[in-house]
Amino acid sequence: MVFRRRLFGVAILFLMMGGMLPDVDGGNGLWAAATADRPPPDITLRRSDVVFMYDNPAKYEPYGCTVMGWAGHGDAKRVAEAHAKGVRLFATSIGFRTEGRGVIDFTEKFLDAACYDLDAKPITVPWLWDHKYKGHPYYWWCTNSPEFRRYLEHRLQQAMSAGPDGLHIDDYTGTAGCVTWLGGCFCRHCMAGFRQYLAQQTTPETQQTLAKLGITDLTHFDYGEFLRSRGVQRDEYLKRRWAMPLAREFLDFQMKANTQFVVEFRRQAEKLRGRPMAFCVNSGLSSPEALAIAPHLTYFCCEVDHQAAKGQLPGHPIYVYKLADGLGRPVASTASGYDWSFVHEHKKEGLVRLWIALSYAMGHNFMAPHRQWCYTQEKGTHWYDGPDEAYAWVYQFVRRQARLLDGYEAVAPVAVLYDNAARRQGRANIEPICIRLAELNIPFTVVVQGDDWLEGYQVRPEKLAGFRAVIVPKDHPVLAEKNLRAENFSRLGCRSERFGRWGWRRLGCGRFGRLGTGWWRSGRRGFDWRRCGGRRFDCRRFAGWPERAAPLAGGPAKGRSPGRLAGPGRLGKIVAPTHPGSGQ
Ligand SMILES: [Zn+2]
Predict the structure, then answer these.
(1) Which fold has domain 41-219+245-405?
(2) Three-state DSSP class for 508?
(3) Distance 191 CA to ligand 1 centre (A)
(4) pLDDT recorded at residue 219
(5) Omega cis (within 30) before 494
(6) Quick one: pLDDT at residue 344?
(7) pTM of the full predicted structure?
């Protein structure tokens, strides 16, 4: 057992440090990732933090807990006890969907707090189908309802009176989270809000849309009525929501209304607490809807799909961690309810240790799994109590090696462009590119181009200056255009005049975009060079680089799993010191 633990220690060290990047550019040294600014260190995660999801004072010491990240017990004595035991950041959680009992007990008008579908039926939370209270199912509460907001304000006062250091929100997407999935919400509060939203839209596009639909007077406009008058009912709406008139505007309204509400909720928490606080939500970063809150967080504290049933190192978390780097927000992750159910049933402790190692190797923090929520459609909610002897020593290892983790940034000579506007069109998915780069042991980071949902992220040429290449998915709208124009490139932060049309295609989407087709293994050499962000990029030299960059892994080979490639290779390198004052 001791030998196995030592072996694991050596393996995790390899993951963290084994990939120290040799000087691949013949003298230019290392490139630090040009990621977004991180929040102030005292209200966010450190790379060596051991984060708990559920509170348990008896386990602080065995695991070396430093952050109570999610559901800290909401009483002042517990907070003080945690601080005394070395927990530096103690967050407590409020659930927007899981507090069915609380809302029903709080107000007799709880049905006025629920979300409603187009047939005027209250929407229930699908994964809480086995929960009932006072004869009622667990409703999906509407964050636009004043009654539900009153309940949340009450909960916030209650939570803040215990004096926590942070606030966590579970299911923070509120009403916006049921628009595309469950066809919500058509309650009277949402209808009033949407009416107001439309009245404030002054863009010619929206005005034209309204005129075409014959909507000239918004005073009494009710979107639900409007759809029903056209013969649309719930089932058809669910199937063809995206094709309905004003569908785009309705989603936009719900998204912005929710983000605004959550931001205000955070402000209120800080006001009650009288100081800046850690703020995190359960958002898995898996869609533009899940990212809108990112600028306002100090860290993500969330469920991430780990594809447990595949029994190998999962690719999805790699994408999540890299995207989070691009957003400048650390991730305290856990696996999904399905994953934990699988681990519970098949006793896959080694797999969980792999997830833990992956997260720390990539500079993030997988939460200590001493208690986990499990879920399957058949079994509903059940629980996994992770045995201490299986996991505690891994976290103790992390605490002992804190100096190897804190204050470092991942080396990234390559950037992958995430464009939120393109993702909202269902294009330019960078997940397969990120996973493929990890398989090839090419160190990279993600640069983020925001939009009116994801504010404050702008790719600029100077941000790209340190990268040898920027990878843009081949179906990115700009690249897919026949006649490329200068302003489109500048939108991506690149200087258009330096790009030839074909060069960009080869570089940005052609050769790189086809990662996975075997081009890297083919030994073919590119012949074009272009500038990106002012730095010369030589395709010929770059083409030979992955082979040289992956000697420990034996180079990328067909049929090898990401896990095997990543093992002794260069996944999640954390080697270049953070430059103080550089904003990284
Ligand atoms: Zn509503």
Answers:
(1) TIM Barrel (3.20.20)
(2) helix
(3) 7
(4) 92
(5) no
(6) 97
(7) 0.80
Distance 261 CA to ligand 1 centre (A): 13
User: Is pLDDT at 390 greater than 80 in this prediction?
Assistant: yes
State in Å: Cα 374 to ligand 1 middle.
Answer: 29
Name the phi and psi angles at 472, rounded to 5: -120, 130
- As a whole number of angstroms, the distance between CA 27 and CA 134 comes to 70
In the reported structure, the alpha carbon of residue 63 is separated from the centroid of ligand 1 by a whole-number distance in angstroms of 42
Is the alpha carbon torsion for 410, 569, 392, 310 positive or negative? positive
pLDDT at position 337, please?
A: 96
> Is residue 259 helix, strand or coil?
helix
Q: Which residues does 154 contact at the CB level (< 8 Å), separation at least 6?
A: 106
d(CA 186, CA 195): 12
Q: Is 134 exposed, middle or buried (0-12, 13-18, 19+ CB in 10 A)?
A: exposed
Greater model confidence, 385 or 562: 385
For residues 92 and 82, is the Cβ–Cβ distance under 8 A? no
Q: What's the gap in Å between 177 CA and the centre of ligand 1? A: 11
Report CA(246)–ligand 1 centroid distance (Å): 17
When comparing pLDDT for 264 and 31, which is higher?
Answer: 264
What are the extents of the domains in the chain? Answer: 41-219+245-405, 410-577
Q: What DSSP character marks residue 430?
A: -
User: Helix or strand or coil: residue 530?
Assistant: strand
Closest C-alpha to 359, from 371, 351, 367: 367
Question: Measured between alpha carbons, how far is residue 48 from residues 16, 118, 373, 578 in Å?
Answer: 12, 48, 24, 15
Residue 140 CA to ligand 1 centre (angstroms): 10
pLDDT at residue 165, as a whole number: 97
Distance 102 CA to ligand 1 centre (A): 19
Whole-angstrom distance, CA of residue 513 vs CA of residue 523: 17
Structure tokens given for 423? 């993702």
Looking at residue 231, what DSSP letter applies?
T
Bridge partners (DSSP) of residue 383 are: 373
Which residue shows structure tokens 């489109």? Answer: 488
Residues in the chain: 584
What spacing in Å lies between the alpha carbon of 144 and ligand 1's midpoint?
Answer: 5
pLDDT at 212 over 90: yes
Token representation of residue 15: 């993951």
Ligand 1 centroid – CA 122 distance (Å): 10
- Average the pLDDT over 326-346 and give the result: 97
Residue 8 pLDDT class (50, 70, 90 cuts): low
**Confidence at residue 30, expressed as pLDDT on a 0 to 100 scale:** 32
pLDDT reading at 63 higher than 80: yes
CA distances from 13 to 32, 189, 245, 439 (A): 20, 54, 55, 19
pLDDT at 347 over 90: yes
Q: ∠ at Cα 161 (137, 370), nearest 5°? A: 60
Surface-to-core class of residue 580, CB atoms within 10 Å of its CB (0-12 exposed, 13-18 middle, 19+ buried): exposed
Average pLDDT over residues 453-479: 78
H/E element, 449: strand 444-449
Average pLDDT, the chain: 79
The amino acid at 21: L
**Residue 302 · residue 333 · CB < 8 Å:** yes
Q: Which residue has the tokens 């090898």?
A: 560
Tokens representing residue 371 in the block: 């208690």
What is the CA(223)–ligand 1 centre distance, in A? 12
CB atoms under 10 Å from CB of 108, counted, come to 9
